[in-house]
């Protein structure tokens, strides 16, 4: 009875926590009615980077991140939906997919919440622009254009990574290539996976030195700003970015679409918090069950010891009675003689 009463109290506590999570989310909803849109929503990301009129913003961002020789001067948007080699293969749907004037393929992904096997997913996605370059003609020599996968993630890729690899906590950008394990030399330079971990970027506005750092700062903080920072006012690209991100410059339909996108992010955050809460409750229940199991086992062991002791006492008593009977018989025989 005690155990079930304990579980009932924990369920009630879990319900209260869930209600608190949703109430805090509603409070956050009121706070998020800011001057500038959140670029980490689907609407915000695609408005700034996915529209033809804002292609110059995307080019500037990619040049800052990738630092490709000669820079990106021309960029064409491609179909973000890719089918596998056969119809039964799983599709890949990118946030953005582009091709440079030199034929280089670039995938841009924005991931708001942690995902199991995200590294695997990004590698799987990168395989599509490699496969699509294959030519059916017999004379094709397998020469490929470079493929870049740019992943903007609003979480740290590995929670315990610092302990495993001693990676600095503020290392917010990782460039991954195929290398020779022994010599550490780059084996293949046409496939580059880039991971931008926003939570690791902690620089203040006055500490920004490069265009890349300015982009990282804006991606993480623009929806919290009341005005465009003075440090960015003279930059034509960022001036346009803030104009495009200002809600006052959006139509009623665009604001409606943005609010829907914002709600999706909020709902995902609620689901994540409730899932983490559920996992915590399960872990606590497992501890309680383990403790109760241990207590029961201790009781069983104690009873077993008592049982063994009782059995020994009974055996000794029987032996004593048998000995007494023998003695009485012997005394009886002596008396007769």
Topology:
Blueprint: H1 2-31, H2 42-49, H3 55-66, E1 75-77, E2 81-82, E3 92-93, E4 96-100, E5 105-111, H4 118-131, E6 147-153, H5 161-165, E7 173-179, E8 186-197, H6 211-221, H7 236-245, H8 252-336
Helix pairs in contact: 1-8
Q: What count of structural domains? A: 2
Uncertain regions spanning at least 5 consecutive residues: 1-5, 27-31
Mean model confidence by pLDDT? 82
Shape: elongated
Proportion in helices: 40-55%
By oligomeric state, this entry counts as single chain
Order of helices and strands: HHHEEEEEHEHEEHHH
Please tally the helical runs, counting DSSP H or I stretches of 4 or more residues.
8
Instruction: State the separation between the terminal residues, measured CA to CA.
Output: 70 Å
Q: Report Rg.
A: 34 Å
Order of adjacent strands in the largest pleated sheet = 1-4-5-6-8-7
Beta-strand percent range:
5-15%
């Amino acid at each position: 009875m005690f155990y079930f009463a304990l579980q009932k109290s924990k369920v009630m506590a879990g319900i209260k926590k869930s209600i608190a999570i949703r109430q805090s989310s509603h409070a956050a909803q009121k706070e998020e009615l800011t001057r500038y849109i959140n670029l980490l929503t689907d609407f915000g990301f695609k408005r700034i980077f996915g529209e033809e009129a804002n292609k110059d913003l995307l080019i500037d961002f990619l040049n800052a991140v990738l630092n490709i020789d000669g820079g990106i001067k021309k960029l064409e948007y491609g179909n973000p939906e890719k089918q596998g080699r056969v119809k039964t293969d799983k599709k890949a749907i990118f946030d953005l997919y582009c091709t440079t004037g030199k034929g280089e393929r670039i995938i841009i992904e924005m991931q708001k919440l942690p995902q199991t096997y995200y590294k695997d997913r990004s590698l799987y996605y990168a395989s599509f622009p490699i496969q699509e370059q294959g030519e059916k003609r017999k004379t094709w020599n397998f020469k490929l254009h470079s493929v870049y996968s740019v992943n903007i993630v609003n979480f740290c890729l590995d929670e315990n990574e610092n302990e495993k690899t001693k990676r600095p906590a503020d290392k917010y950008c990782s460039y991954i290539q195929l290398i020779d394990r022994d010599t550490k030399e780059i084996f293949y330079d046409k496939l580059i996976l880039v991971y931008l971990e926003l939570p690791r970027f902690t620089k203040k506005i006055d500490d920004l030195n490069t265009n890349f750092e300015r982009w990282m700062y804006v991606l993480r903080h623009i929806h919290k700003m009341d005005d465009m920072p003075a440090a960015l006012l003279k930059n034509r690209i960022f001036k346009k970015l803030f104009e495009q991100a200002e809600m006052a410059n959006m139509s009623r339909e665009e604001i409606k679409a943005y609010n829907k996108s914002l709600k999706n992010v909020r709902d995902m955050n609620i689901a994540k918090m409730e899932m983490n809460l559920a996992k915590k409750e399960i872990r606590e229940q497992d501890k309680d069950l383990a403790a109760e199991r241990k207590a029961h086992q201790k009781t069983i062991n104690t009873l077993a010891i008592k049982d063994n002791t009782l059995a020994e006492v009974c055996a000794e008593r029987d032996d004593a009675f048998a000995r007494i009977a023998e003695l009485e018989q012997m005394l009886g025989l002596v008396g007769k003689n």
